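Usage

Read records sequentially. Each one opens with the input sequence:
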Amino acid sequence: MIASKPPVSGLLASESPGDNSPAQGVGELSRALKRTVEDRFGHVRVRGEISGWKRAASGHCYFTLKDEDACIDAVLWKGQAGRLAFAPEDGAEVIASGKVTTYPGRSKYQIVVNSMELAGEGALMALLEKRKAALKGEGLFDKARKKPLPYLPRVIGVVTSPTGAVIRDILHRLEDRCPSHVILWPVPVQGETAAAQVAAAIRGFDALDGSGPVPRPDLLIVARGGGSIEDLWAFNEEVVVRAAADCSIPLISAVGHETDVTLIDHAADKRAPTPTAAAEMAVPVLAELKGWLGELDRRMNERMARTLRERGERVAGLAERLPTARRLTDLPQRRLAEAARGLRSGLVMQAQAAAARLSAVASRQQPAVLDRRVVAGQERVTAAGERLANGLREGARRGQARLDQQGERALAGLRQHYRREEARSRSILARLRPEPIERRLDDLSQRLDAAWSMARLAHPDGPLERGFVRVMAGDDVVTGVEVARRAGTLDLVFHDGRLAVVPAGEGAPPARRPVAKRARKPYLAPDQGGLFDARDDNGD
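and closes with the structure output:
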């Protein structure tokens, strides 16, 4: 059994007693280095450019700070990352505050960042200009995308902090100018999460359709009070700018004071220098609006009264130039009276002309004339028959001579020809008999009787046979009471004579005087003979 030597405290087994620099373990050296570094660099401020920025699922952030000479790894724990005033990104120049520590497992050192800020206003402005140029290149700031603000919005949506003075200023200003329905979407306006929540609020308002309990706003106001560029940095974030540019509701940006300009101001439809000014842009002054409406109402009433007065004067002038009813009816009445007088004389003339034409037709159609025409026709038919018979006999003689000359062979043909000629002659004689003429005369006689009957019916004395009376004042027919009263004496014409009467006043018995009875005779037109007077064909 071999006995082992007891180990020397603090020395490795291979070391021998009496060495001046005893060896240390790796872990012991790493821990010593860690203590030394943390004690020596317990609080540092490092300025550099962010590179390789990455946020882990746990919320911790890992990145590298570098400059032109060196680089150092950095870590930002979740708690500190939520308190940043801006969203870090690659290329941003920052000042990181924290402590330097080592990671013994990989012999690496890093800085644990407690806080971080952008490295001066110049760096922030450079980053702002870079982002502004990129977004402008996409057309998010074009004037063609701007929407007009509604004149009198019913519902106004406000995106701001619920505890700041901004919302109170907006509400007070709206109350003073024109009370409106305001919907507040509370958001933080500073810090790392502010940009995401502001963008979510804008998109949330835009997603409302008005069918639920929350009405859809007619106008949005995104507001924040004044501050440094770091405090306002959330409104320079790309997510906020894109949400404002995509919003279909007209949007007013009121971030900071009049000199503060953020990227949301370029994407909004209207920029207000202050939140109070945004409230003034949103609604008109109610008192001014009422005064304006009152002025419009007054001007409208004055214009209406002036128009009615002018048109009334114009109508009165036109009415004075219009003719009276008597002037309008005088000329038609005179024309009517003249037409009535002409109608009476015209009817008389038409009746006389019709009677003359009827008499002429009747005279031409007298039976004696027709008889003479029939006799003349019969004589012409007889003469034609005799001439035809003579011709036939002459032809027969010539045929007999030819038969004698040509012989027995042509005799049969001549006989047939003779028979045909005889049959044709008999047919002609049959058509020339007087029966058709007699039928024509009978038809004309019947038509003449019918015309004579119509003439008797049209005679003005025809109604007297049926009990009518014609009232005459001299040679004029009386058709009215006034004419009868003005006449001295009236004649009542009956079918068997005349009776003279004197018109009397109302209630007085009419005066009568006997009138000799005259024999009735048929009416004949002047110079018209009897219907059956003998006249020749020429009317002589």
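Summary fields computed downstream for this record:
- Confidence is low (pLDDT under 50) at residues 1-13, 513-540.
- The first strand starts at residue 44 and ends at 55.
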